[in-house]
Amino acid sequence: MPYRAPLDEYRLLLDHVVGFDRVAATDRFAEATPDVTAAILSEAGRMCEDVLAPLQRAGDLHPAKLENGIVRTSPGFAEGYKAIAEGGWVSISAPPEHGGMGLPMTLTTAVNEMMSAACLSLQLNPLMTQGQIEALDHHASDALKAIYLPKLVSGEWSGTMNLTESQAGSDVGALRTRAEPIGDGAYAITGQKIYISWGDNDFTANVCHLVLARLPDGKPGTKGISLFLVPKFIPDADGEPGERNALSVVSLEHKMGLHGSPTAVMQYDGATGWLVGEEHDGMRAMFTMMNNARLGVGGEGIGAAEGAYQHALAHARERVQGRSPVEGGTGTIIDHADVRRMLLEMKAEIFAARAIALACAVAIDMQTATDDAAWAARAALLTPIAKAFGTATGMSVAETGIQVHGGMGYIEETGAAQFYRDVRVTAIYEGANGIQAMDLVGRKMMDGGDAALALLDELEARGRDARGALADLAEPVLAASSALREGVEWLAGQTEMNARFAGAAPFLRAFARVLGGHYHLAAAMACGEGSAQAALARVYIMRMLPEHAALLAAARQGAADLYALDVEDMAR
Amino acid sequence: MPYRAPLDEYRLLLDHVVGFDRVAATDRFAEATPDVTAAILSEAGRMCEDVLAPLQRAGDLHPAKLENGIVRTSPGFAEGYKAIAEGGWVSISAPPEHGGMGLPMTLTTAVNEMMSAACLSLQLNPLMTQGQIEALDHHASDALKAIYLPKLVSGEWSGTMNLTESQAGSDVGALRTRAEPIGDGAYAITGQKIYISWGDNDFTANVCHLVLARLPDGKPGTKGISLFLVPKFIPDADGEPGERNALSVVSLEHKMGLHGSPTAVMQYDGATGWLVGEEHDGMRAMFTMMNNARLGVGGEGIGAAEGAYQHALAHARERVQGRSPVEGGTGTIIDHADVRRMLLEMKAEIFAARAIALACAVAIDMQTATDDAAWAARAALLTPIAKAFGTATGMSVAETGIQVHGGMGYIEETGAAQFYRDVRVTAIYEGANGIQAMDLVGRKMMDGGDAALALLDELEARGRDARGALADLAEPVLAASSALREGVEWLAGQTEMNARFAGAAPFLRAFARVLGGHYHLAAAMACGEGSAQAALARVYIMRMLPEHAALLAAARQGAADLYALDVEDMAR
């Protein structure tokens, strides 16, 4: 089943929906001209279509395995990775002084999404490296940067994130891994980390682990955590991989999907590491990496959704069942209203999630280019929404994709099931979606809702411009936006934090629903009444946007009802 | 992970929510006294807890396999099946004259659901047999009944349904399997059938296939289809398995889940079969079986949801992460509002789906007992809702169950993932959920919505009684019910059938949402303000019921918007 890169949709989104022109107008990103942007996307798209998509099934059928302490990756993954690295697709946005292209995160976001659609399990490898590059660039010493960044940027080496321990998942502060100074600015790292994506591989010359650990004088909780760079092979005097470090892969997890991506239990036995950032300030550095990765994981959900959609559409265009209920139909099941509804809702949902992710990336780029606190606040606001809604879209679209296939969807050979199994983890890792929702209503609303309201101000102003040409679409979007605005104000007014948390998940989804409405409306305006894009917007606005009201009602319930049953009642 | 039969909830539902007292008050089901009912449910529950639940993982880890034409079932399944058969759990509702208990379908529905929760893949076997018993009882000749029913009822033999062919799925009428008369009332059956659940096994002495095929003079389409009973071993003069019939298992499918249930491609090479019902009237007999199976499959979804819920609840009660946000909490993640929200929504959704399934079963029993067309219409109305909503609940609850587990949910050893993979097929087989929705808005609304409105009349009258004691719960339910009523009237008024189909899926879900509200309200009334049940009803009514408005908006869109994009636009 081939993958086709959705280049036209990216073009539309960048040019007319998410305001990429503002990014390209900055000095920092002056090189991101329309020509460069188009060339990057089409070249990356071709690589995804030709090189990565053929690997998708192989990763599922032949999982990475651990043999005598060595991780053997799935057939073809080494070549696929080589294409990613040599094409420069690890490092579109990495610093040029270390070999990166220095292009906007918006382009990385689009490219990552295409790679995810083509081969989710392999794409996770460079995604982790990208986060590591950003963390090192912001927080590491010049000496560390000089050794590691060129190798990571070129893709010769890859990077991982080591946060979780068996007793420390969402509660990172509970970690027990220790770091002891051993002189020369080095530390001995001891402990066990779990769920380490791409903890090892057999195609990069080195694997560099960013490990959270506690120094002897580190306080309990997150404030006593430091971040260390711990390479598999310690670089020698020439910066080439030297002595083997005291770390090992203990085992690989047997997961429901994403089989091509080895998920490792990592053991550190006094492994040599170097401090990144300040002592006891590891969470700050790790958040740099996590925010990057959170947007990336949202993109994974969107990519998987796109893959599942294309797969289901191809099936619906071929499968003949029953008489066509419409005149002049194709004669396949795509003529049936319910099949068409499923496909159009899949497509409309992907558009919404993609627009949100790219809008988040634009905010990150504007923050980078302008250092303006308002852009930083917008990026921070949109990151959890992009992550949770992107991955929720991945799950729901993959589920519908199976449904479009009927019985064939449940048979593994068809491939529809793999999207469903693979994408499921994206709602969990890099902060489970519930954690994203709590971040949104907690930390990201500490400003009293200012960033959220500023975004709505901007979108509503644009929406009002659509009242003339597309009144029937503009009015419901503006009404939904007003309802969301009230929701933001209500939420920001809750001083009892648990009242916010009790509505966090539906609030996040309501926010995404309304943003999707605005972005669909903008696209419809750009393409004009009567366009296919306006027709897609209509499906979204009339059939899917109404959900926002139910979500906001749930978001505003407060916490009391959730504690009215005690735990024994719940078990009865 | 142990399973606990939810006996208290069945009791509450039967006594106060779905009107089982009316069934027990009929002559036909006079034996279904409260004592008998309680004994049946608790004995079946114990068997599910003790015998079936331990088999669940084994079925996943050791799929049924085909070896030299013989299906080898998963470890322990033979013993598990023996417990089901010897306990009489295949045939609670089967005719007493053939060895069944003759008890209401309502009890079978509850018992099937418990068996599904404990071991979904094994439970599918007796579910198919139950449908076959009912089809033979209604449509077969006395001679066939005398030979087959006692063996099926006792569980010595099992039954299957053979509808689908590779070109004939939802469009059964496209089938090509042929039947040729060979004298003595027998027929030679030739063709290939796919997706045959439990097409063979190594623990029943015979496997009896109900096969749809076309006689030489059968017209094209569904009107030319006849139904045949085709046993694996042809019964000898004593009614014992004799000569091997000309049929074979070609292969077993490699499915995403339900590995313990062998899904066969069946080949019939002039196999000997006997007509069931009239020539060319096979669809009518098959629908007897399918309606039975549809309710049963809805119950499979509910059972899987219950299993996933219990699994997630147990995890949430044990897993310690972070500080408790509430005073006097347990110290585990169940103290967190978002975790509690997930669990309570799971529980509330299961209650709603279970109530709908049992209400459907009550209608079937009342139809059986009274032969009243109004009850028949209600059973027909509720069957597609019970099937589609029960299985959708299975999917959504299993998805949330993984989420409650965090990273552990994605690791197969935890077991949460199995519920998610296993239950996915229930939304597809026995008529994909989209087909159920089309049945609801098409065939089941041919009465102009009378059956639907009669049900709402009854429920609203009861809901008005709650206005005094539970006004805050009663009012939203009654308002939602009015909105559904308008939806029914709008829909029944659409003469263009595709306008109905375009909103079929959201309409079905809206119907279920509102029914769930009524049933929760009734349970809250029975248990009283301040009860845990009223608290659960509040979660459902305040947080989940509001979805009905969005669904009804989508249901009333008509079909035009779905055809405004052409297929090429959808691929762009």
TrEMBL record, chains A, B:
Gene3D superfamilies: Acyl-CoA dehydrogenase/oxidase, N-terminal domain, Butyryl-CoA Dehydrogenase, subunit A, domain 2, Butyryl-CoA Dehydrogenase, subunit A, domain 3
PANTHER family membership: ACYL-COA DEHYDROGENASE, BROAD-SPECIFICITY LINEAR ACYL-COA DEHYDROGENASE FADE5
Organism: Roseovarius spongiae
InterPro entries linked to this entry: Acyl-CoA_dh-like_C_dom, Acyl-CoA_Oxase/DH_mid-dom, Acyl-CoA_Oxase/DH_mid-dom_sf, AcylCo_DH-like_C, AcylCo_DH/oxidase_C, AcylCoA_DH/ox_N, AcylCoA_DH/ox_N_sf, AcylCoA_DH/oxidase_NM_dom_sf
Every Acetyl-CoA dehydrogenase-like C-terminal domain range: 464-566
Protein name: 3-methylmercaptopropionyl-CoA dehydrogenase
Pfam families, alphabetized: Acyl-CoA_dh_1 (PF00441), Acyl-CoA_dh_C (PF12806), Acyl-CoA_dh_M (PF02770), Acyl-CoA_dh_N (PF02771)
Signal peptide: none
Family: Belongs to the acyl-CoA dehydrogenase family.
EC number: 1.3.99.41
Reactions the enzyme catalyzes: 3-(methylsulfanyl)propanoyl-CoA + oxidized [electron-transfer flavoprotein] + H(+) = 3-(methylsulfanyl)acryloyl-CoA + reduced [electron-transfer flavoprotein]
Domain of life: Bacteria
A molecular function GO annotation: flavin adenine dinucleotide binding
